[in-house]
Description:
By secondary structure, the protein is α/β, with parallel strands linked by helices.
Amino acid sequence: MKDLKNCTILLVDDTKYNIDILVDALRNDYKLSVALDGLRAIEFVKKNPPDLILLDIMMPVMDGFETCQNLKADPVTHEIPIIFISAMDEPENITKGFEIGAVDYVTKPFNMAEVKARVKTHLSLKMTQDEIKKQNLILEDKVHARTIELEKMNEQLRNEITERKKMQEQLIRSKCLISTGQLAVSVAHEINSPLQGIVSLLKVMEIKHREDKDFTKNMDMVNKAFTRIGDTVKKLLDLNRPGKEKKQRLNVDDILDDTLALLKSFLKRKKIDITVNQSQNLPDLVASPQQIGQVFMNMINNSVEAMIRMPEQQNHSQGFYTHGEIAIDTFEDNGNIVIKIVDTGPGISEEDMIHIFEPFYTRKKKIGMGVGLSICHSIIEDHNGTITVKNSEKGGAEFQIELPVN
Ligand SMILES: Nc1ncnc2c1ncn2[C@@H]1O[C@H](COP(=O)(O)OP(=O)(O)OP(=O)(O)O)[C@@H](O)[C@H]1O
Ligand SMILES: [Mg+2]
């Protein structure tokens, strides 16, 4: 808090004699300034606001009342305490003085001891008020800083809760994936053994009746049907494959090249463009080549099936017509090998996005069983990796696989 000795007082009076008396009485205790009329007092106060003003009322040009009203109307000066010192001792003038904002009113001829006492009281009051204001500002600053800190912590907490919820949902979904997959696999096993028996029996019958043309024709149809059942059973058994295939040191780019070589003519026939962007020197990882190849196969198959339902479009750079494009990128990021597969198909609706990794979730009316992505999911999980999906900027599906470099 400011020391009273450092307080400044402005004395305003048009009578030099009065000024001299006040200066004599107060100069040892405070820093004093003087103005001889209201206008000059206002000008001075705006530049050097004092801690207190002693203001005469009867003055030429602008009287003390008007001067006081002016200072009280200005937000910069309205808090400076004003004590009127006047010969006008009528009650209505004193009342008016207080009404327009003065803190005190001393009548002339004044008793100097009384003036000194009042000045000291009002200055002490002003200093206390200033100190409270200063402390309030410091407190407000502290509250503001703490509020920002709390908001940040809140935001962090909200993010953590969302992240945990996501992880919980993922856990529930992958548990559901596992139990549905296991159920499907045990059913497939049950079907598989009698199926093998029937197929062997059919082979024997085929040999026995190979001369009978009608029988052979019907047998062809039966064989086709059984091949389909066999494929379905194989797909179901694949749901439980992870962990059974032998893992070995391999390069993901090599597996991708092998898969694409197998699919080359299929993609051409289906009028699908493929662009591959492989980063040089991708580190090896320990994985099952069959399973990683199967993941690529399933993903590319899905993109093809999504795009062939779309009308053909001209490939601008090459001039021919295609159903769309699959772009595959491989690169290393933060200890992971990343494989990005983006197509220009219709993309995946928000509702489907939540379910597509679940077994038997399909939108395909005839061809799909809905197990492709579920198999990919369990294979990638078995390799301690992640597979995620979103729609690309152009609207097609964008799958991202991340496999840790062991
Ligand atoms: N690239 C893609 N673009 C658009 N939709 C896709 C894409 N990949 C998958 N989907 C959607 O996800 C569903 C599930 O895919 P998933 O591979 O698991 O099963 P499926 O392809 O329907 O059948 P299956 O793979 O067993 O033959 C698909 O039916 C399809 O609706
Ligand atoms: Mg599929």
